[in-house]
Amino acid sequence: MAKTILVVDDSASLRQVVGIALKGAGYEVIEACDGVDGLAKLGSAAKVHLIVSDVNMPNMDGITFVKEVKRKAEYKFTPIIMLTTEAEEEKKLQGQAAGAKAWVVKPFQPQQMLAAVGKLILP
Amino acid sequence: MISIDPQMEAALQTFFEESRDLLQDMESALLFMEESGADPERINAVFRAAHTIKGSAGLFGLEEVVRFTHCLENLLDRIRAGSTDLTPSRITLLLSCGDHIAEYLDKISVGAALDERFLAEDLRLLTALTEALGTTLPAPMSASVLKSEARPGPEVIPPGSVKTGNWHISLRFGVDTFRDGMDPLSFLRYLEQIGEIVGLVTLTDSLPPLAQMDAESCYLGFEISFKSDADKSQIADVFDFVKDSSTVHILPAHSQIGAYLQLIQQLPEADQHLGEILVSVGSLTEEELQKALALQDVGNQDGQHRPLGAILIAQKMVQEPVVQGALEKQQQQREQQVAERQMLRVRAADLDHLVNLVGELVIASAANSLFAMQDGAEDRVESAAHVARLVEEIRDGALHLRMIDVAEVFQRFPRVVRDMARTLGKDIRLEISGEGTELDKSMAEKITDPLMHLVRNAMDHGIESAERRRALGKPVQGCINLHACHDAGGIIIEVRDDGGGLNREKILNKAMEKGLITSEQTLGDREIYALIFAPGFSTADQVSDISGRGVGMDVVRQNIEAIRGSIEIHSTPDVGSTMRIRLPLTLSIIDGFLVKLATDTFVIPAESVEECLEYPERQGVPGYMELRDQPLPLLHLAGVFRIDGEAGKRRNVIVVRHGQHRVGMVVGAILGNQQTVIKPLGKLFDQVPGISAVTILGNGDVAPILDISALIHGHVSAKHIH
Amino acid sequence: MTMDIQQEQNGATPRLRLAGDLDIYAAASLRERLLTALRQNPQVELALEEVTEVDGAGLQVLMAAKTEALRLGVALHLSGHSRAVLNAMQLCRLTPYFGDPVLLTKEMAG
């Protein structure tokens, strides 16, 4: 059964491209536009095996989102990939402290995302 | 550069749309801060816009956009961190950067080349950005050269090195690996994708007894002999996510025996035991192991070994205490907001097609009802009525899909007003109210230009000079107000200014000069103001750069009337003017009120119908009837359209209103309400005054739709002027 | 899929039937069940036909259980290895460690 990945980013086009790449590699993809939406999607999804989340988002930022995910018994051990930029070393560290131990630096190519996901889960 | 994959193409379109929205948000935030000072939330919004565009542009390989937004993001990051101030000149710079990115995207979306002017602007802005950052201009992006580890040639094995041509990888995963969401098995599987695991031993040394183990802690370690053409950095990259919390050693092929010795000493397991593991993995031969162990002074090493557990405990990160009680309450509200914000992007053409089909469905349903009624069978009539009700709901739903918030129309104006105020050297602020009022998207597109013209006009001619305002005791800062609201089946959009008002005498003189009126005519204020909409009328003393470009208010009026709207002016000297635009809710379907003139059917837009009366055969004053003690002017439609009346037959009066005006239209029989789909007039009807469009009735007949505005104004004006 | 553990009797041998994902989320409860079973019985069978996923945490519990069984002198048998179980064991070269006969069905091999 294909593994499901939740992609949380306020950019619809980013979600779209990442979605195309991940689906092409055999993953199922669920999209969410910010942290609040992400939590809602986690609540309604049957199972999410990996989460990709942006740091900078309106409504609920990535750090808060990661902390919230880590509070959920059913998702506290689920791998989280944080999307950061070089300019945001501090955010990356905050994200890691919150529990997102994997990261991809923006801007990235779809293959880079696939590589990061591939280290954590198989399709 | 851009993939031709249709899915990617669609994603790219999303990117263009989303970037335009983000740039708009960025502009609004910057303009707000220019007015009210910097605030962290808006600075963050601006940063996020640049950040998001950069991130997505990278995904599409739009390197130029990435490079530009990268510089912009750096400056914004400084501003966000408070190390650089958001000065007015920086706001102007940031606004220009936003414009520049928009232009980038426009050019990319149509595949246009980046011309010299554009590149000059690019350089200018980048220079300004880097100056603001206090750095030098970055070198143009070049493909980063990957430093590849020198791969040992298989034929020349330096003396003292081990025989194996494979990499050796030692892994001791951190105790929190599982809790961090990482799975050692996944890393191994990934490793298999870049090479071959020739030998592997899973270490059980640090695995505690079942009774003592914490099942969520990780005790796994691996020794791996790995055959791969990958270089060291590629192999190291596999374990990038765990490199801080785990121990990873990578030895290249044919490493010196000393390197293995060092490895054996560094790892927590007993040296002899580990050495045997390396042999069983295939990284060392028995002979090499013996040589290595002979090299070391075993006695000194043992004491230095720290048990793995100790290291792991030292590395264990303390979980942040979770104190988030207050968040819970906000949660529910937020979830609701999310539901409301979730949108689906739909192609405008698809939507138009749907609305068109619904239009046809409305006609078909009307025909269906008609036939059912002719048929007379009760259940058929009933079911036809049911279908008609559903079709009506579908129509409303479909039309609603086309509705956008007037705020989307207004959002362009803060920038326009700001830039133009600077050009004019006037201090003018813009107030916007009535956001949330919805209007048809195609109408929104068509109303923007006329509004723009009215706003420019109000700023240029309406708002007085600072000296004049001071002399009048008015605040020096002028004010333009854009307002929208719903009104009886339509939408009203107003452009108000607190300027000098329209000059009645000047307009009259000009109109006489142009031969638009004669000196004998006595006109009310509103008629006089309406004169500025006459073709070629312009009162500007001097043709200014901004509004006096020959295309005058007549074009504004034409544009508004083209979407079945109307405009009227209210003005008070030295207090200000209001341009009130009245628009229908939608352009494609109206509720029609069907009436008969002799044998022909005409449609009156139901939204303008106030009431229906019997035609009084005796009237006090000819051309008027009395309606609740008020005289109501009458308009004989049969006369207007030169239809031979059926004198003697019963006639009716339909009271219609347009703006402030009310007229009784004299018609024959009243057929009642019916939904009508507006079809544009063919060439044939184009010149018929008083008819705005036609519709096709359920029985297939073509019926003209009356242009109430034209009829009333033609009528009322005529009454007054003669 | 969340792990489900059913206990049944195979003659005198209690059989723990694992179904679902043998992962970090299931590891703690599996450890409890195995510890209890190993302490109360001279032999225990672990039926793995319905295991859908195995991660390092799940594998590690099985490894610790095997060691514990050896220490207690309990015969712990793993049976009906599902494809996921086999994949994990083969990746870590652990099939000999458990020492159980492994049946490769056609479906699993494919």
From TrEMBL, chain A:
Chain positions found as 4-aspartylphosphate: 54
Keyword set, alphabetical order: Phosphoprotein
Organism from which the protein derives: Acidithiobacillus ferrianus
Response regulatory domain: residues covered: 4-121
Protein name: Response regulator
Annotated Gene3D superfamilies: 3.40.50.2300
Pfam (any one): Response_reg
Lineage: Bacteria, Pseudomonadati, Pseudomonadota, Acidithiobacillia, Acidithiobacillales
CDD domains in UniProt: REC_CheY4-like (cd17562)
InterPro entries found in the cross-reference section: Bact_response_regulator, CheY-like_superfamily, Sig_transdc_resp-reg_receiver
One example of a Gene Ontology biological process annotation: phosphorelay signal transduction system
TrEMBL record, chain B:
Protein name, as recorded: Chemotaxis protein CheA
Superkingdom of the organism of origin: Bacteria
Alphabetically ordered keywords of this record: Transferase
EC number(s) recorded for this UniProt protein: 2.7.13.3
Record bears the keyword Transferase: yes
From TrEMBL, chain C:
Superkingdom, natural source: Bacteria
The name this protein goes by in its record: STAS domain-containing protein
Upper classification of the organism: Bacteria, Pseudomonadati, Pseudomonadota, Acidithiobacillia, Acidithiobacillales
